Amino acid sequence: MDIKTNQGNSEVEVICIGTELLLGNILNSNARWLAEELAALGLPHFRQLVIGDNPIRLKDALLESAKRARFLITTGGLGPTPDDLTKESIAEAFNSPLEEREEILKDIQNKLKISSKISSSNTKQALFPPGAEIIPNRTGTAPGMIWSPNPEFTILTFPGVPSELKDMWRQTGAPWLRNNSEKTQIFISRVMHFAGIPESTLAESIEDLLDSNNPTIAPYAGLGQVKLRLTAKGESLDKANALLKPLEKKLCDRMGLKFFGLDNDSLASVVLDLLRKRGEKLVVAESCTAGGVGAALAAIPGASDVFIGGIIAYSNETKQKMLEVPLACLEEHGAVSDDVVQKMALGAQEKLGADWAIAISGVAGPSGGTISKPVGLVHIAVAGPQGCKAVSENFGSHRERIEIQQLSVVRSLDRLRLDLLERS
Amino acid sequence: MDIKTNQGNSEVEVICIGTELLLGNILNSNARWLAEELAALGLPHFRQLVIGDNPIRLKDALLESAKRARFLITTGGLGPTPDDLTKESIAEAFNSPLEEREEILKDIQNKLKISSKISSSNTKQALFPPGAEIIPNRTGTAPGMIWSPNPEFTILTFPGVPSELKDMWRQTGAPWLRNNSEKTQIFISRVMHFAGIPESTLAESIEDLLDSNNPTIAPYAGLGQVKLRLTAKGESLDKANALLKPLEKKLCDRMGLKFFGLDNDSLASVVLDLLRKRGEKLVVAESCTAGGVGAALAAIPGASDVFIGGIIAYSNETKQKMLEVPLACLEEHGAVSDDVVQKMALGAQEKLGADWAIAISGVAGPSGGTISKPVGLVHIAVAGPQGCKAVSENFGSHRERIEIQQLSVVRSLDRLRLDLLERS
User: Fold this and answer.
1) ipTM
2) What is the pLDDT of residue A9?
3) Which end of chain B, N or C, is more open, meaning fewer C-beta atoms within 10 Å of its C-beta?
4) Same domain, A251 and A383
5) What range does the domain containing B111 cover?
6) pLDDT surpasses 60 at B115
7) For A207-249, what is each residue's pLDDT tens digit?
8) Which of B207, B221, B284 minimises the CB distance to A161?
9) Residues B228 and B352 in one domain
10) Which of B280, B282, B77 minimizes the C-alpha distance to B160?
11) pLDDT of B37 above 50
12) Are A170 and A189 in a shared domain?
């Protein structure tokens, strides 16, 4: 069997390093994230390997990859502990020494707030092969590197911590790949976000468009949301854009209100923007999500000019005490009912003095379900200047507690979005 | 570089097949699930590969794997469409024909409820190498197989649909591996969780133990938390346990209160358990985390017998209105101060009628920082039956908003845990 060697190509491979991945301790979300990023850059990516913290196996894998690929991206194994061996293995595989970089050492010292001597375990994070370009790590102590052991093979190393990987990729990795891959065409890519529609239904209603070759459309299913990544290639930015724009418009027209945002938009950011334009304030009253909607809103920078707070009413007593939900209403309808969520929303709206309120109450499980109110049943109310509406959703009792909570957050923000659009 | 060949070993490799995985369209949850299952079987598993629906690359990967491993598990590529090529590639790689199995054809016919002729695309699902053992698929039309192209290498194929894979694994795959792997040893594994200590400091204080070969210790860094996985092997469960227990005790003694839980414990579950034992109730008052602590608590099943609710006080007005924080206090000290978080905690404790309260106020950024109160500064108060204490933490202005919020959640739960342990 002949393995294809690199012939001026731009083939990329990914190696995720960490015994914890092979033991199943953690989900390899980095691999998916990188896959999507590489697709957006228009870089062909044919293999992803997961390997443990074992220097011999890692060296084997590095040498195999060097035979096939133009670029290799590694994640993990850059930490200070003895089982972090990515750089050491790379250096050994390609017979290179490792040299201490003084400026990196100083930076690590600053980050660890150590005035005098740094421990030997952190010192090793400042070691790099001569000639390696540093990928700065703004948050952690593990910088990455871009290093070419030979002119036809370049390795880019990143830490396994997702937030560090993502920041370093965006700041340094992706721009570098964009400039250094031998592409004759420009790739542009746009993400369109949809809510309130299952992936299969969305896929069916755009079936005629899915086979398109340029631009391509790739669907990605999320919890309660779907996104489509549109990627167009052309000789220039203008030509690629001229292909992308009509498709974007077609999808936008066809999907109507199911379409809620582009690229980095989220339901929370869209809702905050709509309210900001109206100069209105939002509060929440959360039972089964217990702060999940609030946290989703506060995750968006600048949320505080719209979102002012809320009540987490996890017990019935708190619903009465803080939201003025009448005991009779709780007894008659139960905490998971249209009546109670409406009272919760109106209570929060009035008590905190806001224009809009979201209220949620549901059975997140795994226990507590009944025949009439099964696990997965969630009631959502949205109160606004023109009144209050409630809906119920059954997310299904097969779902995990945390999924039901997250779906409730997504669905409640989408209800508010639809209400705001209806009334604008 | 010499690749180790199989010498009567039980090494396992996994290949996940599907272009959708390489495009990042879906998360490879099968890989994690199989990894955990293999760890539970005590089967050493050193490589996971993801590869697209490309027969040439797949054949390369199969032949490479045959050189190294005793068992290969594949997922995906068993469907009826032309890009499902797993069995075809396996047969070609090992020079075997494929033969139609009549009983499988009939079963597919039954499942598709077709009385007469089956389409050619489904016919190919009934093709297998001579001598292959079938892994029945009770729900779908894609059976798997257990096939040994040579006496020292066995391939087990499964579909990519997670529910089908899991059922087939449990019914046929796992029992077969248990009976056919040449294991002389049992593996057991335990996770220990730590908080309030950086990974590098933890690693240094157990440096003398990290080189241990049996049991092994592997550290995993999380946001504000570190975990250690201890894995011991022995001829029997008792012997493996006899190795694991003393190490667990040693780590526990050495790390003191930094150690907070085992296996599936989280800070939230530990805090809830401590309070449950005392028969006490907990509330939260959250500014910059805006519900993050509440959501973390509510993620734990059964939280409601301890956690009763809280106030999200995202604006100063809400802090006054709902938590009785005096305007003078806000004006004098600022919202991010020991004084204000103490007032918030005491306000929540009293208003909601709880024994304990956590309060958080901080500068999550990216804007809003000043010289005296930079981005990353967070004040945390814990109020209990014996009084209220506040601390400040500076997580660093280089961190992302969401990280500062998550670190605040972790740190506040840990403060409460330490307070509870001090007073018990």
Assistant:
1) 0.79
2) 65
3) C
4) no
5) 2-179
6) no
7) 888 878 899 887 777 788 988 988 888 888 899 999 999 999 9
8) B221
9) no
10) B77
11) yes
12) no
Within 8 A of B47 by CB-CB distance, chain A residues are: 22, 49-51, 57, 61
Task: Give yes or no for a contact between B45 and A18, defined as CB atoms under 8 angstroms apart.
Answer: no
> A1 near B59, Cβ under 8 Å?
yes
Q: Which chain B residues are Cβ-neighbours of A312 within 8 angstroms?
A: 284, 291, 294, 309-312
User: Among residues B207, B234, B262, which one ends one of the domains?
Assistant: B262
User: Using the beta-carbon criterion (under 8 Å), do A315 and B293 form an inter-chain contact?
Assistant: no
**CATH label of the domain that carries residue A244:** 3.30.70.2860
CA angle A283, A288, A292 (to 5 degrees): 50
Task: Report how far residue A417's alpha carbon sits from residue A225's, in angstroms, rounded to the nearest whole number.
Answer: 14
Q: State the CATH number of the domain containing residue A56.
A: 3.40.980.10
Q: DSSP class of residue A302?
A: T
Q: Coil, strand or helix: which one is A38?
A: helix
The residue among B153, B179, B205 that closes a domain is B179
Assigned token pair, B312: 């999200």
Name the 3-class secondary structure at B305. Answer: helix
Q: Are residues B220 and B290 in the same domain?
A: no
Q: Do A247 and A318 have their domain in common?
A: no
CATH number of residue B291's parent domain: 3.90.950.20
B115's CB contacts (< 8 A; 6+ apart) are: B109
Number of domains forming the structure of chain A: 3
A126 and A215 in a single domain? The answer is no
Task: Clarify whether residues B45 and B90 are in a common domain.
Answer: yes
Residues B244 and B332 in one domain: no
Nearest to B50 among A47, A111, A221 (CB): A47
Closest CA to A134 of A179, A162, A109, A102: A102
Residue in chain A closest to B218 (alpha carbons) equals A83
CB contact under 8 A, B400 and A80: no
Check CB contact of B21 with chain A, cutoff 8 Å: yes
Q: CB of B293 within 8 Å of any CB in chain A?
A: yes
CA distance B230 to A263: 42
